[in-house]
Amino acid sequence: MFYGWKVAAIGSCGNLLIQGSVFYVMNAFIEPLAALHGWSRGGIGLAMGFASIMMTLSMPFGIILTNHVSIRLIMTLGAFVGGLCYIALGHVDQLWLFAGLLAVVWVCGQLCGGVVATMLMNRWFALSRGRAFGLVNMGTSLSGAFLPFAALLLIEGVGVTWAYTLLGCLAFLLFPICWLVVRDQPSDLGLTPDGLPCRAVENAPLQTGEAPFGWRDLLHSRALWIVGASFGVALFSLGGVLSQLKPRFVDSGMDSYTAMAFMCLTALFGAFGKYAWGWVCDRLTPLMTAKLLFVSNAITLSFIFLPLSIPLPSSLPPSASYD
Fold this sequence. Notes:
Structural class: mainly alpha
């Protein structure tokens, strides 16, 4: 197996254990946090919104950083700091501290996975770049396929504080793996992108060379602002729905486990979808793929205006204790 797929798997794990984990497990933590600390769901939503904005603003910094600092070092530090702050989320009782730590964890998710891992795939792949991107980003959705359910069981079994501690320890353990496995570029191991002969790589539709990227390029590039704003709006729309999907199902009358199962199933389909869109990128132009993606998202989100059609229980389940 080409070594680049191992590097892609580490980036996917960063998205799974940090980037996607802290986002999706909020489906399990929102109600317990409100019950334990007396926080309102609106206040927790604002904390998540602040963290999301900080994460979004960190993306260009992360991209620029990859041109000046070893990606191997960036991902290792991202896992180290992100894991520690993840653990700390369960040990604070003030909402503003929780919001700050949540923002740091989310930013570290971009450093251990996110845009940094995506930039790393630019170096390791040419012909299979779309599928490599898909594999890396599958981790975010895969975290939503089982971690929220695991978090729900942990919360009911050991409480909010220990649940955050155990999940944070899992993310923290990723930092030595990053250092051992990740390499900045194929040439570090005497390889070429995709593991192909040099001539095949040179003739690839997507070249592996990276143009200089600095602050002036960012601020004066009209294309970057348009693309960034387009994907930002799409991510904000989907993130606002997915981060509170389970509580919304509970409000509609489902019990906690059924609601969480539906949320996890949604995330699982999202994981397969990311790899599928990467496969499409390797066969169509990125612009055409983006257009198809945005249209599909708009159609899917429009279903929210449909009336409820699934029979629901007539009464809500008794509230659980989260002490």
